[in-house]
Amino acid sequence: MSGDLKWNKIFGAGLGTVFAILVVQQVAGAIYKTEPPEKMGYFVDAPEAAAAGAAEVVLPPDWGTILPVADLAAGEAAFARCQACHNIAAGGANQIGPNLYGVVGRPVASHAGFAYSDAMKGHTAVDPAWSLDALDHFITAPGRYVPGTKMSFAGLRDTPTRVNLIAYLRSQGSTGFPIPAPDPARQPPVPGAAEPEAAPADGAAAPTDGVADTAAVQTAPAAP
To answer: Dmax of the chain from CA atoms?
Structure first.
């Protein structure tokens, strides 16, 4: 008999606990009930085009303008990160990478005694020689510009530092490589500068100035 009472007490305690939990939930929901706001407190105007991001147009360096004023000392300092793999002394030995003396203007994959990768040998179809642009692209991201290259350098993304480095490379055995003339097409537009008006096509009449030109046409004598 006492055993039955024991189980009844346990069962009753369980039911009481469940009942208490339900009561607490209902009371808490009534006390802390929240209503959604009628409108958002903040509005962020983010057009889809802006969210997607406009493609940035990156002009290639205007070598004729920037190379003559490049900082050779800064370029030599930038070359310090290359010295672990490259020698730049005239007649110096190849290291992990080929000797870079006279590299500007040199045919790609041509330095004697260095075992170039197949990827670099095949790149000669793209760049027969190391032009300024070719060096700029390669130094920016070697593995992306020449997929499969053995050069493990991640790349130099800072343009001024890269320009100074290329100017220094040119000063080491490649001073005979000509600096091109300044190219206005490679210079960024000046903010606020007005664009030149397009000239009328051949045979097209120039635009009139309004009432004055109309009056002139009306008073002009007829052709004989």
So the answer is: 139
